[in-house]
Design goal:
- This protein is an alpha+beta fold and about 150 residues long.
- The protein has one domain (about 10-145): 2-Layer Sandwich (Heat Shock Protein 90), CATH 3.30.565.10.
- About 30% of the residues lie in helices and about 25% in strands.
- The protein has helices spanning about 25-45, 50-70, 120-130; strands spanning about 10, 15-20, 80-85, 90-95, 130-135, 140-145.
- A six-stranded antiparallel beta sheet has the order 1-2-3-4-6-5, covered by helices on one side.
- Helix 1 (about 25-45) packs antiparallel against helix 2 (about 50-70) and helix 2 packs antiparallel against helix 3.
- It is globular and about 40 Å long.
Length: about 150
């Protein structure tokens, strides 16, 4: 298991996992490891393990944005992560940071140069997830992936 820094709390059921953690990059690796293990069990039962890469990619991107851009790598601030598997048809994610938020609407549908090393989050979400939205403030992300669609 990757090293964890500060707060790292996990609450898990058969259909959901909730993680609250302190904002640092090391914790993202730990969250991704927990999520991968959880999804391997749940998605394989649903015969949908082909979605594992896409979910992991989006989780890592969204958590990195929450830690670096939202909470500015401040260990005193937390990130909330929730994943819920709804029936055998969809995966829902919520990621919330304690930052000031951002105007996410201006990045919707934007094509980015391949050479850029930042600003890819919304483009990745649009590629792999069925729906995404932020709260009005722009510090809480909602994502839904339909497991009946092709990726």
């Amino acid at each position: 298991m990757p090293r964890k820094m500060g707060k790292f709390e996990i609450h898990q059921t058969n259909t959901a996992i909730n993680i609250l953690f302190s904002s640092c990059l090391e914790n993202i690796d730990a969250v991704c490891q927990v999520v991968t293990k959880y999804l391997l069990c749940r998605l394989c039962v649903l015969h949908r393990a082909d979605y594992l890469f896409a979910v992991n990619l989006v989780v890592r991107e969204a958590l990195t944005n929450a830690v670096l851009h939202g909470n500015k790598n401040d260990l005193t601030k937390d990130v909330r992560f929730a994943l819920k598997i709804v029936g055998d048809t969809s995966v829902h994610l919520e990621i919330e940071d304690q930052g000031k938020g951002f105007d996410w609407r201006k990045y919707q549908g934007c094509a980015l140069p391949a050479s850029t090393d930042h600003g890819r989050g919304i483009s990745i979400m649009e590629t792999y997830f069925t729906r995404y939205a932020y709260n009005e403030k722009g510090n809480k992300l909602f994502l839904q992936m339909d497991l009946t669609s092709q990726i």
